[in-house]
Specification:
Distance between the termini: 37 Å
Number of strands: 12
Radius of gyration: 22 Å
Structural class: alpha/beta
Strand order of the largest sheet: 2-1-3-12-11-4-5-10-8-9
Order of helices and strands: HHHEHEHEHEEEEHEHEHEHEEHHH
Helix content: 40-55%
Number of helices: 13
Oligomer: single chain
């Protein structure tokens, strides 16, 4: 009986490792499987991972490099089996070029997983409308951005015990980079909405809700004004909703959604929306639970996953001052480990971060404390083994 269980477990593991991509699964699947390993108690820490997972790292601008240092320090202290391929891509620091972009894309396509900081987009027009951030998303087809807005135990805000998810389509909409001056002094800025991509993001949202056991999906729009563009998005969401009868479907106009989030955010579960609305709602919702320093995020395509902070601003005024909050980036890194099926290490990192915040002794300035970034990181490391 035990031998049969071991054989079944091996089959499951082979299927799992195949999903990781590349030759890595062959290496892992060929290793001998111990029967006792499959029967160990949940409390027992697993043996060392059989492989090192390569992950592309883009520190980005602002405090991004400092936050990535915190991630590397915590991973090293926790003996996390991840090796980073680091690339510095920045438009504002003159570290961006077509060659550098191709190097990053090659690494991402090989590794399938990346962690990145905010790549600052200059407001000046220099002949190219699409920023490097947008070009990365398009070339990798990172169409779905997911931000899980979750209250941190021990840190009280006006609304506690929040738990909602914002899913944003991020390859078209207002961020299509299609602008031109039709006549002098008149700029036409095109917003692109397609049925294909609207249905795709709607299906992603409903699949996410199904997988995570959530009960409601709300489509956010402005179809009362943009009757054709947002009307198509809304129609697409309604069509997809019919395929998921067990999940409640609603829609709400973007301006009312902002007000409702501030007044009563508990009414929402999963929200799905076009590009610009998602960018605004991400940051609004982050403010409900502590700000940009505490909310993780991630972006997905059919093949790739990129982990980043949920509310994207470079926090330029904090650069070099050792005051940025590493929480959001560390939680994003923990989510990345879960994506890599490194469940033990994922829980180890996220639990340590949440434990430090709950204890309330070491907090950065944005959470009302006086700790430096380094002090917070050291506190997380000290809690890894607790």
């Amino acid at each position: 009986m035990v031998v049969k269980m071991a054989a079944a477990l091996r089959g499951s593991l082979v299927t799992l490792f195949k999903g990781l991509g590349g030759p890595r699964w062959q290496q892992l699947a060929s290793r001998p499987l111990s029967v006792s390993a499959g029967l160990c108690s949940p409390e027992s820490p697993p043996a060392r991972a059989d492989a090192i997972f390569k992950v592309t790292m883009l520190p980005g601008d602002g405090v991004g490099p400092e936050l990535m240092t915190a991630v590397k320090d915590v991973f090293k202290a926790g003996d996390v089996p991840v090796e980073f391929e680091e690339f510095h891509l920045s438009e504002v620091q003159n570290m961006a070029s077509e060659d550098k972009l191709e190097q990053v894309l090659t690494s991402m396509k090989t590794n399938k997983v990346a962690i990145k900081g905010k790549i600052h987009t200059p407001m000046e027009f220099k002949g190219e409308l699409a920023s490097y951030e947008m070009r990365l998303r398009r070339k990798l087809d990172l169409f779905a951005n997911v931000v899980h807005v979750n209250s941190l135990p021990g840190y009280n805000t006006r609304h506690n015990n929040l738990d909602l998810v914002i899913i944003r389509e991020q390859t078209e909409g207002e961020y299509s980079s299609l602008e031109h001056e039709s006549v002098t002094g008149v700029i036409e800025c095109l917003k692109i909405i397609t049925r294909e991509k609207s249905r795709r993001i709607a299906k992603f949202a409903f699949d996410y809700a199904t997988k995570k056991g959530r009960s409601k999906v709300t489509a956010v729009h402005k179809a009362n004004i943009m009757k054709l563009g947002d009307g198509l998005f809304l129609q697409s969401c309604a069509e997809v909703a019919q395929l998921y009868p067990k999940i409640k479907y609603e829609n709400i106009i973007i301006d009312n959604c902002c007000m409702q989030l501030v007044q009563n955010p508990y009414q929402f579960d999963v929200l799905v929306m076009p590009n610009l609305y998602g960018n605004i709602i991400d940051n609004l919702a982050a403010g409900l639970v502590g700000g940009a320093g505490v909310v993780p995020g991630e972006s997905y395509s059919a093949e790739y996953a990129v982990f980043e902070t949920g509310a994207r601003h470079p926090f330029a005024q904090a650069v070099g001052r050792n005051i940025a909050n590493p929480t959001a980036m560390l939680l994003s890194a923990a989510n990345m480990l879960r994506h890599l099926n490194l469940e033990y290490h994922s829980h180890m990192v996220s639990d340590a971060v949440k434990r430090v915040i709950k204890q309330g002794k070491v907090r950065t300035g944005d959470l009302g404390g006086y700790a430096t970034s380094d002090e917070f990181t050291r506190a997380v490391i000290a809690n890894l083994a607790v």
